[in-house]
Specification:
Layout (H helix, E strand, L loop, with lengths): L3 E12 L11 H5 L3 H14 L3 E7 L1 H12 L4 E5 L9 E7 L4 E7 L10 H12 L15 E8 L7 E7 L14 H21 L6 E6 L15 H5 L3 E2 H4 L25 E5 L1 H4 L8 E2 L16 H5 L8 E6 L4
Length: 326
């Protein structure tokens, strides 16, 4: 696609691939992805054929290296910086080889969220009222903000910035944050603040995209409260909203309840600034459906069993920009 630039966000669900480094060998038995699923993941990535692919849930640099070299014909540069994930599911970028662009991958994993859970705040307040130090420091992001700056060769100013995330899940193992909402809200607030700082730094001239697995409803309709800030303080819009994708075609993960009813909704997003809205190529943007050997899209899963047969429980989301970069 001449004069077009394509970006994809893809949660590849526990992409742990052998061989592992010795210290990570225990993962082999718990999370290893089947060869068949990895082959179908790779087939989807090749078919999407994006210039940049942001990946969630990559099982470390060894797994990423194996994906690229064994399954993707070594056609991508790759970058992974370990974040704060407790089970080693990392954020990574794939960059198609042969472009005239250069890249810089930055991490925000050590930036405090300025957030504590209510019981921690209560204890901190009590200790400080007694003239003592805070007991609980601020939490860090549960993963990271993976920032990718993209440059034209020889330029010191990026022409594009991506802020990739995999926000706090809805699990609450400790019973202190129902649905993970408090932590996710703090992470999202930090993400939007990062966007606004960068937008100001580059005088609103450099497109900045937010993308990845948001683990909640960040769409304009029925927005979860923790995501309202994006519509209040930015001009960012979900690419599926920009292309007027029908609501039924926006499900990026199918979640089946105990009765087998599909509770699926959109968790995966690419938020695009207003300056790019008119450049979005609707025909080559949207959620990607996995395909069979003949190249026809598989029907969407109607049961948990059918979902388990997919290469990932998430569907990739794609944004293609016309006449970009200028």
């Amino acid at each position: 696609m001449k004069n077009k630039f394509s970006i994809c966000a893809f949660n590849v669900e526990n992409l742990f691939l052998p061989p592992y480094s010795e210290e990570d060998s225990y993962i082999l038995y718990k999370y290893e992805k089947s060869k068949d699923k990895v082959e179908r993941l790779a087939k989807a990535i090749k078919d999407i054929d994006s210039d940049i692919i942001f990946l969630c849930e990559v099982g470390g640099e060894d797994s990423l290296k194996n994906l690229v070299e064994v399954y993707l014909d070594n056609n991508y540069l790759y970058s992974l910086m370990p974040g704060n994930s407790e089970r080693g599911i990392e954020l990574a970028y794939l960059i198609k080889k042969g472009s005239e662009y250069t890249f810089k991958h930055l991490t925000h994993k050590r930036r405090p969220l300025n957030f504590n859970y209510p019981h921690e705040e209560k204890e901190n307040h009590y200790q400080m009222s007694m003239g003592k130090k805070r007991v609980y420091p601020s939490h860090l992001p549960s993963r990271d903000i993976a920032e990718l700056r993209v440059f034209k060769e020889g330029s010191e100013k990026p022409f594009l910035i991506l802020l990739g995330v995999h926000l706090k899940s809805q699990l609450d193992k400790e019973g202190i944050d129902f649905g993970g909402r408090l932590r996710r809200a703090a992470e999202f607030k930090q993400l939007v603040e990062t966007y606004n700082v960068l937008n100001k730094r580059y005088h609103q001239k450099v497109p900045i995209l937010l993308l990845g697995d948001f683990n909640g409803k960040a769409c304009r309709e029925e927005t979860d409260p923790e995501f309202q800030k994006i519509y209040e303080s930015t001009d960012l819009e979900d690419v599926l909203e920009v292309i007027n994708e029908p609501k039924e075609a926006r499900v990026s993960i199918h979640i089946f309840d105990k009765q087998g009813k599909d509770q699926g909704h959109q968790l995966d997003y690419i938020f695009v600034p207003k300056m790019l809205h008119k450049k979005i190529d609707a025909k080559h943007s949207g959620l990607y459906n996995y395909k069979n050997e003949e190249g026809a899209p598989y029907p969407r899963p109607t049961s948990l069993y059918e979902r388990y047969q997919l290469p990932s429980d998430h569907f990739p989301i794609v944004c293609t920009i016309k006449n970009f970069p200028n």
